[in-house]
Design brief:
The chain has 5 helices and 7 strands. The chain has about 120 residues and is an alpha/beta fold. It has one domain: 3-Layer(aba) Sandwich (Rossmann fold), CATH 3.40.50.2300.
């Protein structure tokens, strides 16, 4: 999983939590780092902060999805503006940063399972 959050501590912590839960995860803090990681290898899932400082996590995710560099997108954000919610839900799944660890892991497990089912068809 590709983790993209401009808060380095949060990005690293989430990647570490994912690794402890059995996922392979790469932490990045900018759109440029995420693009570099995604062009080096494709990811089954990207976890994107909607607001990446000067960058837009929704636009980054849409680009990586369209290019096949990520197969699914989860948006993990404190920003829940109506327009962001609609766009995030069109591109993937939206989870509030205030969500519990169990909720986040549950969403990621469902996304991973859905991707596995698609790959088998």
């Amino acid at each position: 999983m590709l983790v993209v959050d401009d808060n380095a501590l949060l990005s690293t912590s989430l990647a570490r939590l994912l690794a402890q839960s059995g996922y392979e995860a790469r932490a990045t803090t900018t759109a440029a780092e995420a693009l570099e990681a995604a062009y080096a290898r494709a990811f089954d899932c990207g976890i994107f902060d909607i607001r990446l400082g000067a960058d837009d996590g929704l636009t980054l995710a849409q680009r990586l999805l369209e290019e096949g560099r990520v197969r699914a997108a989860v948006f993990f954000s404190a920003t829940l503006l109506r327009t962001d919610r609609r766009r995030a839900n069109r591109l993937g799944v939206l989870v509030s940063k205030a969500a519990s660890v169990d909720r986040v892991l549950g969403v990621l497990a469902r996304v991973a399972a859905k991707q596995s089912l698609r790959a088998q068809r």
